[in-house]
Amino acid sequence: MVRPVRQILSGAAELIGSLEQCHMSIRCPDGGPGGSKRLKFTHTEFSPYAMLSVVASLTPYSDFNQSPRNMYQCQMAKQTMGFPIHATEHRADNKTYRLHTPQTPLARTRRYSKYHMDEYPNGTNAVVAVLAYTGYDMEDAMILNKSSIERGFAHASIYKSINVNLRDERGRDLKFEANTSAKRRDGTVRPKGAFGEEYPQAIPSHATFASTKDQGVSVVGTHADALLIDSDGLPHVGCPIWPGQPYYNAKETLTGSNKAGKLKGEETAIIEQVTVIGGGKGADIKQASIKMRFNRNPVIGAPSGAMSMKYPGMEVKGVPKECSVLCRR
């Protein structure tokens, strides 16, 4: 945690720490006395922007904003839905957020280009219509263009990695293996979510089916949950897992009993990646990292987004169809 300043006596650059700078006399580079003519300075800043942090220096026209709003923008910029990493498939973070359609800002500061923020963009440009006439007093809320959402506006995903370690089960010798004691059930019952949604389902093998019984991928094996779990007890990559459905199965070597790990929560997950940890030289697999993907698209009533309604563009009278967000203040 060091930053560079310039020594006035020698003109050399010096790296100072956060605890040290509280007891130093550092001058602004404008050459002024800094509020006290008797104060003697030993160092000077390289630029007037050095007093700002990296996040604070990315806000354009900050001198036109209210000071608390600038601080609030720094907080929102750090927790925004952006593009934090490029090697998503090589990482096993507990939780990672990713925006699918990041864009470079139209208005930017000099520090934005200096820090190469386009390599890790953290937002999307939105055409906003502010309605501030009589009758448009809905306070702090937004109306999103339904067509913009259907084209991918603000679509994002959350990646969660679950580390399953069978060695943590004390007193039980478990290994990943499919449940062969129960047979596969080929029913036509389609799972439903907490709000009645029925999609996504497993991708059908053909586009033309004569009946709903044939809908689904062609599974291999007669074990239980063969559409979700492979013969090795680990899930299929790309398979949708609904809440309450198993995404792995482990079998005890002594008794033959099965233990299935079921998805918790109310959201549908897509198996993104399955990584086997250890298990070399013919040994049984005891540990695996299962990465899941959850959709994070704009929804009505979300506490963080505060979206009130999705309107088709042709139903919003007097507003250009290019507008993505309507703010009513």
From TrEMBL:
SUPFAM superfamilies per UniProt: beta and beta-prime subunits of DNA dependent RNA-polymerase (SSF64484)
This enzyme's EC code(s): 2.7.7.6
A GO CC term attached to the entry: plastid
Domain DNA-directed RNA polymerase subunit 2 hybrid-binding span(s) in chain numbering: 55-301
UniProt keyword Repressor, yes or no: no
Keywords associated with the record: DNA-directed RNA polymerase, Nucleotidyltransferase, Transcription, Transferase
Annotated localization: Plastid
Transcription is among the record's keywords: yes
Enzyme class, first EC level, given as a word: transferase
Gene Ontology biological-process entries: DNA-templated transcription
A Pfam family this chain is assigned to: RNA_pol_Rpb2_6
GO molecular function: DNA binding; DNA-directed RNA polymerase activity; ribonucleoside binding
Known role: DNA-dependent RNA polymerase catalyzes the transcription of DNA into RNA using the four ribonucleoside triphosphates as substrates.
Family: Belongs to the RNA polymerase beta chain family.
Subunit structure: In plastids the minimal PEP RNA polymerase catalytic core is composed of four subunits: alpha, beta, beta', and beta''. When a (nuclear-encoded) sigma factor is associated with the core the holoenzyme is formed, which can initiate transcription.
Protein name: DNA-directed RNA polymerase
Organism in which the protein naturally occurs: Auxenochlorella protothecoides
Native organism taxonomy: Eukaryota, Viridiplantae, Chlorophyta, core chlorophytes, Trebouxiophyceae
